[in-house]
Structure formats: C-alpha cells, structure tokens
Design a protein that fits this description.
The complex is a heterodimer.
Chain A (H helix, E strand, L loop, with lengths): L1 H20 L4 E9 L6 H12 L8 E7 L2 E4 L5 E3 L15 E5 L3 E8 L1
Parallel strand pairs in A: 1-2
Antiparallel strand pairs in A: 1-6, 3-4, 3-5
Chain B lengths: L28 E8 L2 H16 L3 E7 L5 H12 L4 E8 L4 H7 L5 E5 L8 H11 L5 E6 L16 E7 L6 H4 L1 H6 L2 E5 L11 H11 L4 E4 L8 H12 L1
Parallel strand pairs in B: 2-5, 2-6, 3-4, 3-5, 6-7, 7-8
The chains are: A alpha+beta, B alpha/beta.
C-alpha cells in the first residue's frame, strides 16, 4: 500500500506550494497517473480522504486522469500501445518495446483559495 | 546531510502575523504544478547519491519478496569480502532488530530501520542512517529493503544498482507477476539453486520472462548457503566497488 506514502508526499508538496503561492485551502487536485506506473488509481482514491484529513486539502476533490501506455518497438521502430511492461509489439510481435509514455505519476494542477 | 528537511535544526517560529496580505481570499484560482509524486523522495535520493559518489561508496539496494534469502546472501557476501573491503549494512524491516543482529555478528556495522506500517524504505530515512553509520570512504554499502516485490521498486534510495533476489522455491513467472521490480533492477540473482532438483522451477523460462520485462537485466544463478557460483556475485561487486 505505497499509495499511502505517495499521498503523504502529495500532502507535503501541497504544504510547500501553499507557502510559496500563498493559499489556504485546496479545493481540487488533479493527478496524472500512467497506467504502466506502479500506482493503482483506485487505491489513491481510497486513501485520499484519510491522508488529507486535517491538512489544507481536507475535503478537496480528487481527480485522477490516466495516461495510456505507449512504447517504441526496438524492431519496427513504431510507436505502439502497450498495456503492461512486457507486452510485445502489436505490429510485429517483437518482445522488446521501450516504454515512452505511461510511467508518469504527477500532480498536474490545483484549484486553491 | 539533511539540508533539505532541516531536521535536527531548531525550528524558527515566526509569530508576527500580517493582516495586510494580498486579498485573494475566497477567490478560486488554478495553479499548475506538474510535479512528480516522488519528487521529494527523489531529491533526498539525489543528495544520497552525491554523497556516495563524493566518498566513493558503492551502494546496492537489495530487494526481493520475504524469504528469498537476502540476509543469508548478505552474511555470506560480507564473509567473502570483509578482509578486502570496508562494508556497512542498512537493514529495513517493518519490525525487529533480527536482521541487523545477524549482520553485526559478522563484525560489520549495521543499522536497522523499522518502517512500522510502511512497506518500503525511503531516501530520507537512508540519508539519516548513512550519517549514523559514519561510512568509510572507498567502501561498500548494502541496503536490504523490506521484503516486498511491489513498493520498493518506486523509491530511489540513491543506490548505484537495485539487485533483485528471486529464489527457486518461488514461481519462475514472478518477473511477469511483479514486472515493476524487474524493470527497475539491473541485476537478478536466482538464489537457492542447490534446491533445483526438488522444485518445479524453470530457470530458462524465468530468465526469459525477466528479459521480456527488462532486456538489459543481468542474471547470476547461485546458492548462498551452499556457495554454488557465489564468486560470480562477489566479483560483480568487486569490479564495481574498486
């Protein structure tokens, strides 16, 4: 359940931004989670309220946008969709595809007051 | 070490409150952040990595599921290397000092980090443990992570390499079941090979699965308890820590 640790990181990042950008409350937070990252969006949603309790993001709305996995096939050199880190190329069946998108897990933006 | 968190420093409390702050009260606004969820951990990891580089400390992050033989492997590694190389160990477990005690019995300094409910070590805790250990320059530091093939894969500790241990008493398809860890590791040790005659573990298939997830992963097959091919692992460390 490292999603809890990640959410604790999010809470700290929010505190830092609250200082530099001068806000008191987070109303909405948008996270971008790649489908090849080791984060389970459902687990983030599940733990969010508990971790944000008594922080400036208490009762904030959580939006999780998911990024599809994309890789570059080492053989046919085409960009292809991948659903897991070990998916072969859908075009030429070569097993070696280098991930180019889908590993990210970021805080995209905030709505604050 | 902890220039980022400033922990250990006296906290400065500012009581002078300003009532004349810019008036954006109750006006909603959008702030673009674009920051990685792991950015804090990664900053600590970068700091650790810079420290290791400066003092020429070769650091590995040893990961596996519980029971793959990480501690036994470390004890035997220490016994093979301690005459020629300064070694220190950081042990991560949710509870108990058992593993650090086993390491200290070899005469090597070890610090136990109990992560409590957390399922992995993080770079901040490692930074503090490194300070407490007073590492020697030109040495080898082994970090034994919490037994878990999932969570430790995302937390960079500042190590040179993640080394994943998979024992033949587990399934040979673990690289596919837990791809994140095998994707993050640079070396896979297939341990307990002395038990191969008694278990249904296909070594070739296991290596093929691991390479499917991570084509660049190196593989060494060994038995830590019986010593089979153990020197291949010892020289892997030796080559990199000199």
């Amino acid at each position: 359940m490292h999603e809890i640790s990640l959410l604790e990181n999010v809470r700290e990042i929010l505190q830092d931004h609250a200082k530099t950008q001068q806000f008191k409350q987070v109303k909405k937070i948008t996270l971008e989670i790649g489908l090849l990252s080791c984060v389970e969006p459902e687990a983030l949603r599940f733990g969010f309220d508990a971790v944000m309790k008594d922080s400036l993001a208490e009762n904030a709305e959580l939006i999780v946008t998911e990024q599809e996995g994309v890789g570059l096939c080492d053989q046919c050199k085409k960009q292809v969709p991948i659903a897991s880190l070990y998916d072969p190329c859908v075009l030429c069946d070569n097993p070696f595809v280098t991930v180019t998108q889908g590993n990210e897990m970021k805080i995209k933006n905030l709505i604050v007051i | 070490m902890c220039g980022i968190c400033g922990c250990g420093q006296t906290e400065q409390k500012h009581s002078h409150h300003h009532d004349h702050q810019p008036n954006h009260a109750d006006t909603e606004r959008l702030i673009k952040v674009e920051q990685d969820l792991l950015s804090k951990n990664n900053r600590y990891a970068d700091q650790n990595r810079a420290y290791f580089k400066q003092h020429n400390i070769f650091t590995i992050n040893l990961v596996s599921s519980p029971g793959a033989g990480k501690t036994t492997l470390l004890v035997e590694t220490i016994n093979a290397l301690k005459e020629q190389l300064a070694i220190a160990v950081i042990e991560g477990d949710q509870q108990t000092e058992h593993d650090a005690d086993r390491i200290r019995a070899t005469g090597i300094p070890a610090i136990q980090i109990n992560t409590g409910r957390a399922c992995h070590l993080d770079a901040h805790g490692i930074g503090h443990a490194v300070m407490d250990l007073k590492l020697k320059p030109n040495s080898f530091l082994a970090i034994e992570n919490v037994g878990n093939l999932v969570c430790p894969s995302s937390f960079d500790l500042g190590e040179a390499h993640k080394v994943v241990v998979l024992s033949v008493t587990e399934g040979d398809d673990k690289p596919l079941k837990y791809p994140d860890m095998f994707y993050a590791a640079d070396l896979m040790l297939i341990n307990k090979t002395d038990l191969l005659p008694y278990v249904d573990f296909d070594v070739d298939k296991c290596i093929q699965y691991a390479k499917q997830v991570n084509p660049d992963i190196e593989v060494i097959q060994l038995s830590a308890t019986k010593g089979n091919n153990f020197m291949a692992w010892v020289s892997w460390i030796n080559k990199r820590s000199l």
